[in-house]
Amino acid sequence: MPVNSLFDRCRTFRSSIAVSSLFALRLFAALPFLSCDSEPPDGTPSTSDGSACDHALTNRACWSTFGVSKIVPGGYGFFGGAFDGRYLHLAGNGQPGATYMTRFDTQADFLSEAAWSTFNIGAFDYAAYRFAGAAFDGRYIYYAPNSTPNKIHVARYDTQASFEAPAAWSTFNVEPIAAAPVLSFKGAVFDGRYVYFIPEADDSDAPGGKVVRYDSQSPFDTAASWSMFDTVRVNPKAQRFSGGAFDGRYLYMAPAGTKEGERGFAARYDTQASFEQTSSWSTFDTTALDPWAFEFAGAVFDGRYLYFAARAFGGRTPRYDTQGSFEDPLSWSLFDAQMFVKEQPQNFGGVVFDGRYVYFLPNATFGARHDTTADFAEPRSWSGFAKNAIPFRESPTAGGIFDGRYLYLIPANLTVNLSRFEVRSTPSLPPTNRWSFF
To answer: Pick from 423, 427, 294: which is nearest to 369 by CA?
Structure first.
């Protein structure tokens, strides 16, 4: 794919989200790397700035690590997070009474403990613990609960207040909204007005399809601000998801099924239609592409294409062309990451887009990266990288975040460091342009 086509895709994406000025401002604040303001000369990568670390993923000098256990007691870890334009917010994965939300100031020294702060949400609300994923709506950070039946408390932080002040935090029990036992969500997605919490399970054995939605224009602690849709109404096999993405119109949820009967069914919602109508929803069975193409860990949108990160089974990676029909297999393609890393099967722990490359983050031994300016099916557009070749150590990766300059790999536990890769030497947009959106 020519480089300029990436800019065409970016502009198409920008026009597709022009539902409201507030929507566009908020979304592009959260996705600064999708800048279409100026085109590079032909042949110049869209995210290149000539730095020594420009895309040099295997250059150890481009990586740095920080021992988050220095500031988070108890050895608890994280699962996913969000970026608000300045601060990196990590969703705490702890225990009742001890779940530490953690924040890093990206304008400060990465290695300085002063750049980091924590808040024990468990001390604020004992039932609020173990989160998986977060979303930013332009002011608030919302954390998706991944905890226990009957006490599924969404947490919210007001970024206009002190991170360590209890008054900046609030929680809401969404279990009554689901009108049934709910064990866990895995991921949250913001569409410009609504925050969607991606369903994982109803109990320890049963998958779940109950998507809970919050209207960010309404009071957080009022039941009328919340609604629920169960994807089994569309397809009984569309249950258990892990992560999602938004393309400017549609919400996508990545299938994470591990058992027969819950495998491979991705779900899509048209945000321009009624949330509670089955006709607004559609599903696609990714096993139509390959019998082993199921169980994914996250989704990402690059301006045209949607990617799922394979959680297991050799790294079989589906890609959906959003210009085609969601339910048509011809709109989908598949790449098997096992083609370029043959030592061990792939097992990814998340997926991130930096404006040119899609990173499939290593959960086990290897990660992968795809150059979106090249042919998806061409092995040369892919590269693999081993965790032991860069400062990962041996922690599973629980998602990642790109802040316009750095790619952060979130550790599932704190016995190891949080790793950061310098994608480019300067941010993709000047900070004053990128974040002055209110």
So the answer is: 423
**Shortest CA distance to 141 belongs to which of 99, 177, 188?**
188
- CB-CB neighbours of 62 under 10 Å: 21
119 three-state secondary structure: strand
Question: How far from chain centre, in Å, is Cα 95?
Answer: 23
250-255 sheet: strands from edge to edge: 241-246, 250-255, 265-270, 281-285
Selection from 302, 308, 406, 432 nearest residue 10 by Cα: 302
CATH number of 3-435: 2.130.10.10
Tens-digit pLDDT profile for the chain (438 aa)?
A: 433 444 344 444 443 433 333 444 344 434 433 333 333 322 223 334 445 576 677 788 888 889 888 898 876 789 999 999 999 999 998 888 899 999 999 999 999 999 999 999 999 999 898 999 999 999 999 999 998 666 789 999 999 999 999 999 999 999 899 877 777 899 999 999 999 999 998 876 678 899 999 999 999 999 999 999 999 999 998 989 999 999 999 999 999 876 666 677 999 999 999 999 999 999 999 999 988 888 899 999 999 999 999 887 667 899 999 999 999 999 999 988 776 555 555 688 899 999 999 999 887 777 889 999 999 988 889 887 776 666 655 567 889 999 999 999 998 887 778 889 998 877 765 333 332 222
